[in-house]
Amino acid sequence: MDIVCRSPRGEILIRVNARPEPASFHDNVRLRGQKFLQSVPNPNNKQFRPHSYWTYASADLRREYSGVCAYTGMFLVQGSIDHFHPKSIYPKCAYEWNNLRYCNSKANNTKDNSEFVLDPFSVGDDWFHLLFPSCQVTPNPNLAKIDRYKVRQSIDILHLNSDDDFVQQRSDFCVSYADGDADFDRLQKLSPFVARELLRQGLNTPEKVANIFGRGRGPKPARPDDIN
Description:
Helix content: 25-40%
Number of strands: 4
Number of helices: 9
Oligomer: single chain
Shape: elongated
Largest sheet: 2 strands, antiparallel
Distance between the termini: 73 Å
């Protein structure tokens, strides 16, 4: 049974509006992909490889989603493209803008062909919470039991808590804010998810975050170029 690749609506793990399809996408990606699928309707990964026209949209995806991973909610120096509906199962969605997710390559690899990860474009607002100072992702306890299960399943499949790098990055963002190395605006750009959770939990000042993470808030030592 084919999946219809509809335009996504709703919120991401961090509230982000789905961005419109770029004007160049139809010619650069969709038409080329459709031509390939006419000759090979159900390609395997090896057959897809020389026809990965979705990569032509990499710069557009990065720009439209401000370089933030759809699954981890953190800024990426370099991201990858995930097909939310796996292209090996739903080839007709392989070249559709609304099926592409800009994401961390590790999250992309662990998701693989899973169909049990919640779509970051259709999850409910505030479904994912963050515990401090452990920086572990957890379901909103007020969700219905079935939705809490789906959130935990997504967390497990994407390794959001079991991957030490993901946890450490979330912690580092908090510490950077607590130490005054990043203001809240910058934190929102680097990790909208962390910023949203700090704000939701009333931890919206460096002093409050420093207290949670056991950081001192004394004056910073002078740098050599600050000394006359």
